[in-house]
Amino acid sequence: MIILDGSTLTVEDVTQVACEGKRVGISHEALKRVTQCRARVEQIIQNHETIYGVTTGFGKFADVLIPANEVETLQANLIRSHACAVGEELPPDVVRAMMVLRANALAKGYSGITVETLSMLIECLNQDILPVIPAQGSLGASGDLALLSHLALLLMGEGKAVWKGKKMPAAEALRQAGLKPIRLQAKEGLALINGTQAMTAIGVLTFARAERLVKMADVIAAMTLEVLRGIPEAFDEAVQDVRPYPEQAAVAANLRDLLYGSKLTTRQGEVRVQDAYSLRCIPQVHGAIRQVLTYVGEKLAIEMNAATDNPLIFADSNKVISGGNFHGQPIAFAMDFLKIGMSELANISERRLERIVNAQLSGGLPPFLSRRPGVESGMMIAQYVAASIVSENKVLCHPSSVDSIPSSANQEDHVSMGTNAARHAANVVENVARVLAIELIGACEAAEHRGSDRLAPATRVLYDAVRENVQPLIQDRSITGDIEYVASQLKEGVWLRRVEKVVPLIC
């Protein structure tokens, strides 16, 4: 079980909850903080203090005072009116990630939630009762209001939910699970939806997949270098030392280890004097992409353990402050940076693929790796597909974070569009997995012609893993299923674990 305390949640924790169904609980200290903070909210109501979202309306209605007998109605109406997201439904892993991230933020004890409502959120997560949440509709400031409102509807027994693989009314899902809907009290609706948990949830899961793909890209690139009779001397430690980026050095070290024992690589002047950039500059490009991941990882680590709602209630000092921690600009920038970096991973992969299938560049491999060139086309159109995906990524990489459209009658006059950035980053990473898959299939096919027994021990492990389910292209066939299968294995790190038993990779 993962214990939430508002401060120590990690990417690995979130992925275990989101992808493996690991259960969560709340620390004793966190519950104490939540209780203390809630007591301050009750005091605000009793004293008739003017506090945004507790005794006033929301957004442009911040100056509208709410009578004491309407404060609960205010919270329910907030959720119902804001739950208007549209588009495709978020996948279950993203929804689970949203739930655990929101619970962790509430556990910090600055939001004014009741212990009962927080416990209900955690119970729904642990029983895998998932709200149906459409993906589109967040501006990424004032939090992910529309998307998180669909999450909050579940706790109220409204909206739709998925339980045990079936979509049903949320009230029915709660009833079958033996739970009763909650009645939101003062501040609770706002506490549930005023945060960055949608963009952060998408970001965390996308980041985790990106990390695995970046590692696997080193292995795939190593195999491609082998089948193209490449020159590993470019990866010599001395070359890296005089341009001392640690990420570049890490990639070069990976490549040296991965290529150790290969009978296919060559030396300078043996076949050619130097390789093309897509081979020779792997450490420089893959290393720079790792620099992007370092930046993104740092920002996600902070955001996962941040209080991002408004107003924030500081029970110890008796302060209630309206601030702007809900603004998603840090994550918007991070997600735009992530998609740019990962897009470049696909760009260089597609260029390596082109060298494999182009007989004028491959150094003796048959055109398009065809067994019967002319009669059969081999991997000709697979390269087209990779090129198409790379082009699509360039469109997706247009930065969302540079856009802002005023909302709420210009009260909320600058927004981050961080959730759009995160969604596009997720699309880019999916595309990168497919491009790397096509390169890997091409490298394995080229190894059939060069002699797979001549591969280095580490790359041979990957080759054997691929060949368990992807057979050689003895004759033309559709390889759509092969590409999707290989991409899924790369994203989820299935083969990475096998390779790392031979060569532990540096990230």
From TrEMBL:
<keyword id="KW-0369">Histidine metabolism</keyword>
<keyword id="KW-0963">Cytoplasm</keyword>
<comment type="similarity">
    <text>Belongs to the PAL/histidase family.</text>
</comment>
<dbReference type="InterPro" id="IPR005921">
    <property type="entry name" value="HutH"/>
</dbReference>
<dbReference type="InterPro" id="IPR001106">
    <property type="entry name" value="Aromatic_Lyase"/>
</dbReference>
<dbReference type="InterPro" id="IPR008948">
    <property type="entry name" value="L-Aspartase-like"/>
</dbReference>
<dbReference type="InterPro" id="IPR024083">
    <property type="entry name" value="Fumarase/histidase_N"/>
</dbReference>
<protein>
    <recommendedName>
        <fullName>Histidine ammonia-lyase</fullName>
        <ecNumber>4.3.1.3</ecNumber>
    </recommendedName>
</protein>
<keyword id="KW-0456">Lyase</keyword>
<comment type="pathway">
    <text>Amino-acid degradation; L-histidine degradation into L-glutamate; N-formimidoyl-L-glutamate from L-histidine: step 1/3.</text>
</comment>
<dbReference type="Pfam" id="PF00221">
    <property type="entry name" value="Lyase_aromatic"/>
</dbReference>
<dbReference type="GO" id="GO:0004397">
    <property type="term" value="F:histidine ammonia-lyase activity"/>
</dbReference>
<feature type="cross-link" description="5-imidazolinone (Ala-Gly)">
    <location>
        <begin position="141"/>
        <end position="143"/>
    </location>
</feature>
<dbReference type="GO" id="GO:0006548">
    <property type="term" value="P:L-histidine catabolic process"/>
</dbReference>
<dbReference type="GO" id="GO:0005737">
    <property type="term" value="C:cytoplasm"/>
</dbReference>
<feature type="modified residue" description="2,3-didehydroalanine (Ser)">
    <location>
        <position position="142"/>
    </location>
</feature>
